[in-house]
Design goal:
Response regulator, 4 helices, globular, Sig_transdc_resp-reg_receiver, 31% helix, transcription regulation, phosphoprotein, alpha/beta
């Protein structure tokens, strides 16, 4: 009974900055329950997409090393892997006309964990699940962190 319908969707996170890649991965796995694989650039992402057939969504930064940026990766994914959803993110670049294929989305940095989770759920056609995210780090006086349901 090990069908892929019973497993959470796989998301490919493409980010060259290690801490940002880890943060996005943690949000998507720990807070939202997705399975995450990682790539540091578009070339590595394309190799993973060629070898894995379980990726449902690519979450990619725009600026990264290599010949392709996140917008170019989104266009290639659209052409070669039309069933895979794409969310592009950046704190510097904004999409211009023609940068993103139809149906692909942009999430500006910095983004709230809830914004990322909501956009992923929308892209995958899922209903929102309650997600517990600490609003503030705990202090000795407070004890445990305050949690919010999103």
């Amino acid at each position: 009974m090990s069908t892929t319908e019973n497993k959470p969707p796989v998301i490919l996170v493409v980010e060259d900055e290690t801490l940002l890649r880890m943060l996005a991965g943690d949000i998507l796995t720990e807070d939202a329950g997705y399975r995450v694989i990682e790539a540091v650039n578009a070339d590595e992402a394309l190799i993973l997409l060629e070898s894995r057939h379980d990726v449902r969504l690519v979450f990619t930064d725009v600026n990264m090393p290599g010949a392709l940026n996140g917008f170019a990766l989104a266009r290639i994914v659209d052409m070669r892997f039309p069933g895979i959803k794409v969310i592009v993110t950046s704190g510097l670049a904004r999409p211009g006309i023609g940068d993103l294929p139809k149906g692909k989305r942009f999430l500006p940095k910095p983004y709230a964990p809830s914004a990322l989770i909501t956009m992923v759920q929308e892209m995958l056609g899922e209903t929102a699940k309650p997600v517990m995210i600490p609003l503030d780090p705990p202090t000795v006086e407070q004890g445990s962190p305050v949690l919010a349901t999103i």
